[in-house]
Amino acid sequence: MACAMYSTLVCAAYAWMLVSSAINGWAEDTCGTLGEGTTQLRAALDLDTSDPLTQYYIGATYCYTGQWGKSVRFLQKSLKTNPHQPNAMLHMGLSRGFFGEYEQAYECFDNAERMAAGEAASGPYSWYRGIVLGLENRYEEAIPIVAHVLEIMPRYATARVT
User: Fold this and answer.
1) CB neighbours (10 Å) of residue 114?
2) Could you give the dihedral angle defined by the CA atoms of residues 81, 2, 90 and 123, in that order, rounded to the nearest 10 degrees?
3) Can you give the pTM of this predicted structure?
4) What is the pLDDT of residues 24-59, one digit of tens each?
């Protein structure tokens, strides 16, 4: 897909979808899919990135590719314009956790769960908290969370590997 002929939002969402599918084990060609995701991300960055949903997808893509500083910057922009995005807050928490900013990460998770209400019991909301607890070496708290995610999402490959 030649992103220049599409909107920035489409390019950013497509980049996130590709990278997400690669890291979750859903892509047949992980390296090729990650490469295409990176290409789409660059194409999105060459266009207008002022839309908060576009900023969310860019931030989430950066989060999943280990570029947490960039992730936080884009997610902060997104949340400044539209503060009621639980998924943006969730990814902000994950990025902050990888930075070692554990308290800020848990605050983000708490905020995301409040915003998402009924969705908060879903796998990703618990899963990201479990990841950060593991990063903080709080395994006794992390293991039951990851086990619960596997109960409700038994085919979630990333949680199974963890």
Assistant:
1) 11
2) 150
3) 0.87
4) 778 899 899 989 999 998 888 888 889 999 999 999
